Amino acid sequence: MTTLNEFSSCVAQYDPHALPVSAAQAIVRQWATPVTAIERVSLHDALDRVLAADIVSPSNVPAHDNSAMDGYAFQSAALTSQAEAETVELTVAGKALAGHPFGGAVAATECVRVMTGASMPAGCDTVVPQELVTRGGETIRFAASAVRGGANRRLAGEDLALGSAALRAGRILRASDLGLIASLGIGEVPVRRRLRVAFFSTGDELRSLGEPLDPGCVYDSNRHTLFAMLRRMNIDTLDLGVVRDQPDALEAALRSAAASADVVLTSGGVSVGEADFTQKLLRTFGDVAFWSLAMRPGRPLAFGRVWSGERPGLGLPALFFGLPGNPVAVMVTFYQIVRQALLLMSGATPQAAPLLRAESRELIRKRPGRTEYQRGIAERDAGGQWHVAPTGSQSSGVLSSMSEANCFIVLEHERADVSAGESVDIMLFDGLI
């Protein structure tokens, strides 16, 4: 069995103690195997699920040529036959409404009153908008130059052609997708089963909500943050609570999590402190690719696999992410390292979060040799230029800065200090968090 450590050591820039973010992301992608189970769900239950197979259009959409606006349908030959007079004159032969087509024949000197969405009468290929027409009785007149042949007509299959893929497998279904599927007459879709993620916090100092705070203790915020981030991704969660800094308790929690979930997330306990037992335990029944990243915040981050059995290869396996204990570092590492892995394991085709260029309003301190994700407040001026400034203290324990910020300021691995007025990349929270 190839271990993660053996595989990872072949990756460029591999350093288990200070791995560049890009290398860490590459390693994680290689081991994020999608779940295979598929189920069929109704459209009402399909929002944010991952499509397991292509949706193929069983018909043309629209099914018939139809009018793109209210007006009059006619044969475009009338434009050339009457062009010398500069005015086209046609007789109204009837009316067509959406769902109520005109069934008669239309002569070259005739037209049909049509409403938006109405099927085009046989032989008609052009619609003149009603506001360009002068009507007197059953006759209409309009300038020959007002429209071109074929104008204002939607063609059958223009949206989707019979047999074409309407949506591809791997797509996370959005509200617009459900409407598109419904327009094809499809009421159920195949989706991947939801990914299952177990998570817990470690530390004797942590207390759950409702418990009294002893001296030196704090309330556990990380589990609530992780739950919210996982729920936003439509993932099934298993909250295992707070696990004390005791090897036996931590081992039992890790084995139980591996037996119940596809992925195990922990916060705290992966640094080199005297009470951080995770590293020692994972050497016994786990397999670890790296322990530390060249990243701020989020340096102490472990990635590997754990098994529910007594040693690697025994029992049920799960991917393992040991996140830092500091609250901001938990969020940063989740969105920059963990999130893409969870999308891949869910069967989705992840898209890189878009980056915008913004002008820094002030000096930003940065040390080369690590990637930094500083919390920032971005805004766009009247001319459309984005500007950004850090929220203030970038300590990974200042959780309020994440609520105050609306973006990450992404500072590349080799970048040094950023001067005021210099351009930086920003990753907006909206749509990401």
How many helices? The count is: 9
Which fold name fills CATH's third level, the topology of the largest domain?
Answer: Molybdenum Cofactor Biosythetic Enzyme, Chain A
The CATH class assignment of the largest domain is Alpha Beta
Mean pLDDT: 91
Give the CA-CA distance, first to last residue: 37 Å
GO molecular function: metal ion binding; molybdopterin molybdotransferase activity
Keywords: Magnesium, Metal-binding, Molybdenum, Molybdenum cofactor biosynthesis, Transferase
Protein name: Molybdopterin molybdenumtransferase
Function: Catalyzes the insertion of molybdate into adenylated molybdopterin with the concomitant release of AMP.
Short description:
The protein is built from 9 helices and 26 strands.
How is this structure best described in words?
It is a single chain. The chain is an alpha/beta fold and 433 residues long. The protein has four domains: 4-37 and 193-345, Molybdenum Cofactor Biosythetic Enzyme, Chain A, CATH 3.40.980.10; 38-61 and 158-192, Molybdopterin biosynthesis moea protein, domain 2 (Alpha-Beta Complex), CATH 3.90.105.10; 66-154, Molybdopterin biosynthesis moea protein, domain 3 (Molybdopterin biosynthesis moeA protein, domain 3), CATH 2.170.190; 356-428, Beta-clip, CATH 2.40.340.10. It has nine helices and 26 strands. The protein has helices at 4-8, 21-31, 77-81, 175-183, 222-232, 247-260, 278-285, 327-345, 400-404, and strands spanning 38-42, 55-56, 66-67, 71-74, 87-96, 110-114, 126-129, 134-136, 139-143, 153-154, 165-167, 188-192, 196-202, 206-207, 218-219, 236-243, 263-267, 286-292, 295-296, 300-307, 317-323, 356-360, 371-380, 386-390, 407-411, 423-428. The protein has a six-stranded mixed β-sheet with strand order 7-4-6-5-9-8, with no helix packed on it. It has a six-stranded mixed β-sheet with strand order 16-13-17-21-20-18, with helices on both faces. Strand 8 and strand 9 (139-143) form a beta hairpin. Helix 5 (222-232) packs parallel to helix 8 (327-345). The longest helix has 19 residues, at 327-345. The protein is elongated and about 90 Å long. The two termini are 37 Å apart. The mean pLDDT is 91. Catalyzes the insertion of molybdate into adenylated molybdopterin with the concomitant release of AMP. GO terms for molecular function: metal ion binding; molybdopterin molybdotransferase activity. Belongs to the MoeA family.
